[in-house]
Amino acid sequence: MSVCIRTSAGNWKEPAIRILRLLWMSGGKSANQERPHESLGMRMPSEVYEASKKKWAGTPDQLDYEGLITRRIKSTGSIRFENQSIFLSTSLQLWDVGLKALRDETLEVFFARLLLGHLDPETASFIPILPDAKETMREAA
Predict the structure, then answer these.
(1) Cα distance between the two ends of the chain
(2) How far is CA 18 from CA 7, 22, 56, 58, 140, in A?
C-alpha cells in the first residue's frame, strides 16, 4: 500500500507523518501476524515460528590469542604498542586483537582468526589487508 499525504505546496505536514507511521505500523503487524505467506505454504509466520532452543550467551568478554601479544583496542580505535598509539579501527573498539611478531620486525594483527593487516612499530603505522579490487568485482558479477 502506498500513501502520499502532502499539502498543496507539496510540504509534509506533521499530522500526515503521524498518519503514515500508524499505517506503516499496522501494515507490519498484518504482514507478519495475520496475512499468509506463499513461501510458508500459505501459513502465517506466527504459525511456523519456533523460539530457539539455544540460549544466546552474548559475545565473549575476551578472545584467546594463545602465544600472541594481546592488545585491547580503545574507544578511539587505537592500541598502545611500545609506548606508541597506533590507530587500527573504531569498528573493533574495546575488543582484543592478537599481534604476531614476524622476522622483519613487523607484526601481523589478528581479530580472532582473521588477519587484519600488519603493524610497523618503526613508523607506528597499521597497513590493513585490503581486498583485491579485481577479485571483489568478479565476486560481485
Answers:
(1) 33
(2) 15, 6, 36, 36, 40
Contacts of residue 121, defined as CB under 8 A and 6 or more positions apart, other chains included, come to 81, 82, 84, 105, 106, 107
85/74 Cα distance (integer angstroms): 10
Rounded CA separation 121/60 (Å): 29
Distance CA 37, CA 71 (A): 49
Region for 46 from its dihedrals, namely left if φ exceeds 0, alpha if ψ lies in -120 to 50, beta otherwise: alpha
pLDDT, tens digit, for every residue of 64-112? 999 999 999 999 999 999 999 999 999 998 899 999 999 999 999 999 9
Per mean pLDDT, which of 38-47, 54-63, 76-85 is the most reliable? Answer: 76-85
Q: How far apart are CA 112 and CA 92, in angstroms?
A: 11
